[in-house]
Amino acid sequence: MAGFWAVALDYEVQAPPGEWSTWDDYQVRFPEAERVGFAAITDPVGDGRICFLAVPEEKRVKNRLHLDVSAPDGVDALVARLSSLGGTVLRVGRERGQYFVAMTDVEGNEFCVH
Predict the structure, then answer these.
(1) Which of 16, 57, 82, 96 lies most in the core, judged by the most C-beta atoms within 10 Å?
(2) Domain tally for the chain?
């Protein structure tokens, strides 16, 4: 997920802190019940960060949050890159004069590229 969204948002996958080689290795200092699948991406030109935490449940219904991703280098170019990483095109459309492509990420979460 982190790799997919790093490409979608033009972010970078964040390495774990210090000398830790993976986020799993970093979490050995936590009680086992508190360890989770974790990854993060960061904005290379600012201090924004998005974290991804694994949950045991599968996606069953529509997202509670919808993301629209801007594609400064062109919608079709970003859609092609995301498709090559496992994203799926749901539909292509135009609303309020704006061209967009509705997609799902590698875990089935829906978003639009415009």
Answers:
(1) 82
(2) 2
